[in-house]
Amino acid sequence: MIGILISADVESRAELERIVTSTHNLDQVIGYKLGVLCSLSLGLSECTSLVKNHCDKQIIYDHQKAGNDIPDITRRLVSLTYKEGVTGFILFPFAGPAVMQAAIREGQSVGLRMIVGGYMTHPMFIEDDGGFIPQSLPQRIFDEAARLGVTDFVLPGNQPDVASAYASSISVAVQSPTFWTPGIGKQGGSICALRAKLPANANLIPIVGSSIYESSNPSLEVERLSCEK
Known about the structure:
CATH topology: TIM Barrel
Helix content: 40-55%
CATH class: Alpha Beta
CATH superfamily: Aldolase class I
Low-confidence stretches: none
Shape: globular
């Protein structure tokens, strides 16, 4: 495990400040994921500035879920977030390969870490589970992302068997991929259970949100998760 990415899905400066000030000095924390809640509430520029005032760790932007508009809008979104100081961008390109290509090429051109997902953590997502997304789509997304040079992928951390299957196929196409895994903690995922299912040499970055930001002691919760057996 490389470390934990904290998902800061909060809506006030005080909440974001509390999370960052209490965790930024922990070696286990590799950075912060900023989403639409804090970005719409405070502005992305203010959010990134707050994090950078405390540390130089990674700042990943998750539009929840970017990749569902036309290629030009998605490309401009990637460019805008880069200008606001993020270091990585999460993309779920359900709108198709043209959108994916535009976003990834824009991100790569400015040095953003492009992180591609195709399978979400909640029930009734995939068609076989009562959802709208065809069973074949996530693999198609991962295959195309690998072809475009992506080495970072989002996998469902609360579904170890699903994550393991995709991790195995991605590892054939990509040398030393990194897997970012939401769904840990309150969504039922366990870092230990997930790690046991992934390839032994997998680079794993669990993404943890509410278990940390709803805790009365975020730093203690990070320590607990990091030492989970």
